[in-house]
Amino acid sequence: MAKSMKKLKFEEAMQRLDEIVEAMETGEIGxxxxxxxxxxAMTLAAHCRRTLDAAEQRIQKxxxxxxxxxxxxxxxxxxxxxxxxGEE
Length: 88
Known about the structure:
Blueprint: H1 10-26, H2 31-62
Helix pairs in contact: 1-2
């Protein structure tokens, strides 16, 4: 991967993940390339998770209470919409 993970934007990482999944699903790449791309995908997924976690923390810091004062409100996983069709 040409860019350092720290400089890689979330959208770019997701696009690359999509490319890897598509390449692996076609079955047109060999086992060695599949393993290398799987490793890259896991690194990209971890990067995306860290980016989302950091965004979640920022959102918690900027939420306001009823009096208009900033208040940290923890993000509860049950507040997320339920996955459709068994997706996560």
